[in-house]
Amino acid sequence: MLAGQLAALRLALLGAQMRSVMKVTLVQMNSVGDKAANLTTARALIERAIELERPDWICLPECFDFIGGTRAEKIAVLGDMQVVTLTSAIRQERGIQAERGALIYALGQSAAEATGLETGDVILQINRRRIENAEELRQAFTEEAGQAPVTVWFERGGMTGRTTFYVQ
């Protein structure tokens, strides 16, 4: 009974506060890793909303700040290798099967040649240590520096591979 009375009171108060009507249009889009394409798509969607709906206000989704690349923190490992923690958004965007790991975001040519890894690879394991995120990868490489060669298990193009190299 009390809940019904509160709901009625809330509706009465909201109705009393509304003095004019504002037309709001929500624009929803799926961002991809290409910033220019995202901005072009957003502009086209906004222009279409204006043409068709003539709104007083256009609202973009709360995640529209993601207009390209990744918001994930980039962690430098092995000199010119940058990695990010694998997220569900990255997995979906890139078609990655692994649920956890560290995605190689940037990799210089010399590091690629020395390690056999490529930009876009997801590092899953070093020796027998499973890698859950980018920080764990940095720690593992730090601990292995100057020791025996490491075997790195990774996902590339939906397949699992491995490579062995020394960490300097």
If you had to describe this structure to a student in words, what would you say it looks like?
The protein has 2 domains: 20-69, no CATH class; 75-165, Pdz3 Domain. The strands form 2 sheets. Strands 3, 4, 5, 6, 7, 8 and 9 form a 7-stranded antiparallel beta sheet that branches. A two-stranded parallel ribbon has the order 1-2. The radius of gyration is 24 Å and the shape is elongated. It has 168 residues and is an alpha+beta fold. The chain has helices at 2-17, 35-53, 88-94, 109-115, 134-144; strands spanning 24-26, 57-59, 75-77, 81-85, 102-107, 122-126, 129-130, 150-156, 159-165. The chain is built from 5 helices and 9 strands, in the order αβαβββαβαββαββ. The model is unreliable at 65-69 (pLDDT under 50). The longest helix is centred in the first third of the chain and has 19 residues, at 35-53.
Keywords:
alpha+beta, two-stranded parallel sheet, 7-stranded antiparallel β-sheet, Pdz3 Domain, 24% strand, 168 residues
Structural topology:
Layout: H1 2-17, E1 24-26, H2 35-53, E2 57-59, E3 75-77, E4 81-85, H3 88-94, E5 102-107, H4 109-115, E6 122-126, E7 129-130, H5 134-144, E8 150-156, E9 159-165
Parallel strand pairs: 1-2
Antiparallel strand pairs: 3-4, 4-5, 5-6, 6-7, 6-8, 8-9
How would you summarize this macromolecular structure in one to three sentences?
The chain is α+β, with helices and mostly antiparallel strands and 168 residues long. It has helices at residues 2-17, 35-53, 88-94, 109-115, 134-144; strands at residues 24-26, 57-59, 75-77, 81-85, 102-107, 122-126, 129-130, 150-156, 159-165.
